[in-house]
Design a protein that fits this description.
Elements: E1 2-7, H1 15-27, E2 32-34, H2 48-54, H3 58-69, E3 72-76, H4 86-95, E4 107-113, H5 121-133, E5 137-138, E6 143-145, H6 148-151, H7 161-183
Parallel strand pairs: 1-2, 1-3, 3-4, 4-5, 4-6
Length: 184
């Protein structure tokens, strides 16, 4: 399967990029992985006037094309103030203007990493809403990596074998869900 793993952070040393790398390493031997750099898709704040004057930005269209080529999408997102990061929400707002919607019926797994004790779980609940509103098939389980700066090593591997096993089990369960959807 083709899996798009998007770390929804523009920061170079993002712990969510490290989480995306760790997940990608787990599944790369069996799947084709696409890990676009979120910063490469920096979009202006959604504005209907911009859309009316010049259409949906090419960067949003390019990201939509990559999403459409994927059989499944894994999002690794930070939590900003207990909610969805503005950059990710803005990207979804632009994607929502495209026809066909690139996320309709697309299996999506939500994950996140945070230096805090809750591991971005509060933000993941908020992140579900726009994905579901856009018709994505958001997997029921989510994963939040707490104390993330200490959880991953320099090669994007999990320092704790139990945490690695937990993520591996979740990702493989999600991929089985996605594969069943693509067969039907």
């Amino acid at each position: 399967m083709n899996i798009l793993i998007l770390a929804a952070s523009a920061q170079k040393a993002s712990i969510n990029k490290k989480l995306a790398g760790a997940i990608g390493q787990m599944i790369a031997s069996e799947h084709k992985i696409d890990t676009p750099d979120f910063k490469a898709f920096s979009l202006p704040m959604y504005d209907g006037d911009i859309e009316q004057e010049s259409g949906v930005p090419e960067l949003a269209q390019a990201l939509a094309a990559r999403i459409q080529q994927a059989d499944a999408v894994i999002i690794c997102t930070p939590e900003y103030n207990g909610s969805i990061p503005g950059g990710l929400k803005n990207t979804l707002d632009w994607l929502s203007r495209l026809r066909p919607h690139p996320l309709v019926a697309k299996p999506v797994l939500l994950t996140g990493a945070s230096p805090g004790a809750l591991g971005s779980i509060r933000g993941l609940w908020h992140t579900r809403v726009p994905f579901e509103a856009l018709g994505a098939l958001v997997y029921p389980e989510m994963f939040g990596l707490s104390s993330a700066y200490d959880a991953l090593d320099e090669q994007n591997g999990f320092k704790d074998a139990r945490k690695s096993e937990q993520v591996n089990k979740l990702v493989n369960s999600f991929l089985a869900f996605a594969a069943a959807l693509t067969k039907s």
